[in-house]
Amino acid sequence: MFKKMINPILFQGDLKKKNYFEGWYYKQVSENQKNVISFIPGISLFHGDYHSFIQYIFVSVDKHDKRTTKTGYVRFKLEDFKFQQNPFRISIGENIFSESRVFINIKDKDCDIKADINLGTFTPLKKSIICPNIMGFFAFIPNMECYHGVISMNHKVSGKIKINNEEINFNRGKGYIEKDWGTSFPKEYLWIQCNNFEDKGTSIFLSVADIPFGKKSFRGYIVNLLVHGKQYRFATYNNSKLEIEEINDKKIKISLENKEGILKLEGRLTQPGGLLAPKKGEMNIPVKEELSGEVKLYFLNKRSKQTYEGKGSIAGIEVVGFNS
């Protein structure tokens, strides 16, 4: 079990569970940032409808700066899902997802996608015995509603993707990978991810969510910031303080602070696309995900007094359940 905890990319569940989901999130951004596509392969083990799937969200900007967003959910039989743990590899039909490659050949109602993408060296999270993954000691608590893993904060990608009859070059592009597993997504959550800043080494992941715990619930949060070659963690489990200054379907402003530093973040949504999220294992909850949002960061390292300010683009942002 500990091997799985410290390697969240591995298949965490089994195919006999009930009311269970597991999904991987592979994001690829072209070098010119005009094209971004995320693939979400996974399984849904809901009574009467066990199946595997590949979701996608694709955003492109043409020469006239017109933005187009396409999303889809392609269903497969559960037996089409195959996995191996060492080296990690899952396949759904002829589609392959591993630590070094993404190969896609899917047909949706109005979108025919073929992709062959090579993945560069991952930038994994810092880990320890008491903090085996992004969830900290919460990773050891059984039967939580949703578990989360961040697999690579930043890596290079290369290859091509063909959408219908248009071929797109992803050489010298950037990638990011995370995943979720459990029974349901939180009823209220905020998610932000961006690794496209002026400083190419900067990357941020943020999640704020309502976490059921016994008969009650609490607001949990986890943030991992990679800047100046170092990772910083702001989380419920390390006594960080969170203040949500503003949140609606267009804009988010958040401040975080702990003994290491102060982080201020502002996110802007532009044109989100529709995806499906799990409830009791069933993929039936419509959500809106922004894939080309904007992020502003300010970070102060309290010890060194070093600061970082930057703007990020092609940010992934989801806001679900929060009142405007």
TrEMBL record:
GO molecular function list: tocopherol cyclase activity
Xref: InterPro entries: Tocopherol_cyclase
Pfam family, one: Tocopherol_cycl
SUPFAM superfamilies, sorted: AttH-like
Name by which UniProt lists this protein: Tocopherol cyclase
Protein species of origin: Clostridium intestinale
